[in-house]
Amino acid sequence: MGAVSQQMVIGCDMSASLIQICADRGFEVCVCDNMSIPYRSGVFDAAISIAVLHHFSSEARRRRALEETARSVRWGAAVPQRSSPKHLSSFPISLS
């Protein structure tokens, strides 16, 4: 009881070729930039980023990507981020 009977998963990436591979396999995907997600605010129940943050060139850009991801999910939703500590040790970020 209380389980969602239907869910939709949407994937986003900057690489059109990777998006095409996923689309060919039947996934719902779009090409977009983490700093400008093309969905309305609060539309998602959760968002996850894996190996993304260390690709941004500055703390300001990493912060903007995190803020944009947070904007796209409903209030209180999970927004786990996963990047290698090896990559992030050179680019500390403080969210306060």
The tally of helices reads 3
Strand order of the largest sheet: 1-2
**CATH topology title:** Rossmann fold
CATH architecture: 3-Layer(aba) Sandwich
Spans with pLDDT under 50 lasting ≥5 residues?
A: 87-96
Total number of strands:
6
Fraction of helical residues: 25-40%
Please state the structural category: alpha/beta
Shape: globular
Q: What is the arithmetic mean of pLDDT? A: 80
What is the level 1 CATH name? Alpha Beta
Radius of gyration: 15 Å
- Counted up, domains total 1
Give an overview of the whole structure.
- The chain is α/β, with parallel strands linked by helices and 96 residues long.
- It has one domain (10-88): Rossmann fold.
- Helix content is 28%, strand content 22%.
- The strands form three sheets. The protein has a two-stranded parallel sheet with strand order 1-2. Strands 3-5 form a two-stranded parallel sheet.
- The termini are far apart.
- Mean pLDDT is 80; it is low at 87-96.
